[in-house]
Every structure is written in structure tokens, then in C-alpha cells.
Amino acid sequence: MGPREFRDTIVIPNVEEFRANFSEVRRAFNAAMALDALSAQIYIWCIVNAPDKVAGIKDDTRYREWLAQQDPDFRLLRDFAKAQKHVHLRACFGTGTDRSATG
């Protein structure tokens, strides 16, 4: 599955479900994780189809960091997804801080 198919079959339905009922934590989680995973899909696609776009970026984690540096909204999404996956954040890229998940 390429990034467009992933977006159409996974990301868009999850985001639409979240928008329809944004008070449900499960929907927020699924939407954020799907969007975060889309960035990895795009990175892998670029390695094969547009290597100049990811030249010097060694993996999808570094690609996410590059995207986060470009866009504060993506940084928030990436940090949220990472905190959910790892339960907390340690030494966030570029901040040197420890951000623990609460709740």
C-alpha cells in the first residue's frame, strides 16, 4: 500500500470519525496514529520515487523531526502520537526536555 492508498483507506476515515465525534479519545488516538504513520509511508515512498526529497535523512524518525521543524502543527501531532506509543516523551528532539504524558 502506497501513501495515497494509505491516506484514502486509513487516514481519511479515521480523521472523519474523529471530526464527527471529537470527544471520543479512541477516535483521537486512531486519527493521530494514522496521520503519524502516513509520514512514514511518505518517507518510504520518497526513498524509492523521489530520493532527492529525503536526501540526508536517514530514517522515518528523522523525517518526522524534519517535518516537525517545518510545521508546529505537525510537531504537536508527532509528539502526541509518540507519547501515546511510548507512554511518555524523553528528551524531545531539539528541546532537551522531558515531557511526560498525563492523564
Describe the structure.
With 103 residues, the protein is mainly alpha-helical. It has one domain (3-100). It has 4 helices and 2 strands. It has helices spanning 3-20, 25-49, 60-70, 72-86; strands spanning 88-89, 99-100. Strands 1-2 form a two-stranded antiparallel sheet. Helix 1 packs antiparallel against helix 2 (25-49), helix 2 crosses helix 4 and helix 3 crosses helix 4. The chain is globular, with a radius of gyration of 14 Å. Mean pLDDT is 87; it is low at 95-103.
What is the end-to-end distance? 35 Å
Series of H and E elements: HHHHEE
Tell me the major beta sheet: 2 strands, antiparallel
Helix content estimate: 55-70%
Q: Which stretches are low in confidence, meaning pLDDT under 50 for 5 or more residues running?
A: 95-103
The strand order across the widest sheet is 1-2
Q: Tell me the Rg in angstroms.
A: 14 Å
Shape descriptor reads globular
Structural class per helix/strand content?
Answer: mainly alpha
| β-strand number | 2
What proportion strand? Answer: under 5%
